[in-house]
Amino acid sequence: MLSSLLRSALESVITCGGRMQRLSCDQGVVSVLTVAYGRRNKQTCSEGRPPGQLDNTACSQGGALEALASRALYHEARLEG
């Protein structure tokens, strides 16, 4: 699960594994405050998952914010180049 908190409108966006989320705004910039990759509860992104995959709600992958930032910079460079 990729969860991003947007500062300008204080929106929370949840993107389940294997999906892509495009973040944009009409004016200004998008500021990502937090990113989490893992499971924090049994409900979010649970569709089609067996119960055994939902049991561990304290798992997460470190470095998610850095990974998102590097991908965003890569796409920005491609657009400008």
What descriptors fit this protein?
alpha+beta, 81 residues, single chain, 4-stranded antiparallel sheet, Jelly Rolls
What's this, in brief?
With 81 residues, this protein is α+β, with helices and mostly antiparallel strands.
Description:
With 81 residues, the chain is an alpha+beta fold. The chain has one domain: Sandwich (Jelly Rolls), CATH 2.60.120. It has one helix and four strands; from the N terminus they run ββββα. Strands 2-1-3-4 form a four-stranded antiparallel beta sheet. Strand 1 and strand 2 form a beta hairpin. It is elongated, with a radius of gyration of 14 Å. The model is unreliable at 1-8 (pLDDT under 50).
The CATH first-level class comes to Mainly Beta
Average predicted local confidence, pLDDT: 77
By DSSP (H or I, 4+ residues per run), the number of helices equals: 1
Q: What structural class should be given to the helix and strand makeup?
A: alpha+beta
Strand and helix layout:
Layout: E1 2-6, E2 11-15, E3 32-39, E4 59-60, H1 64-80
Antiparallel strand pairs: 1-2, 1-3, 3-4
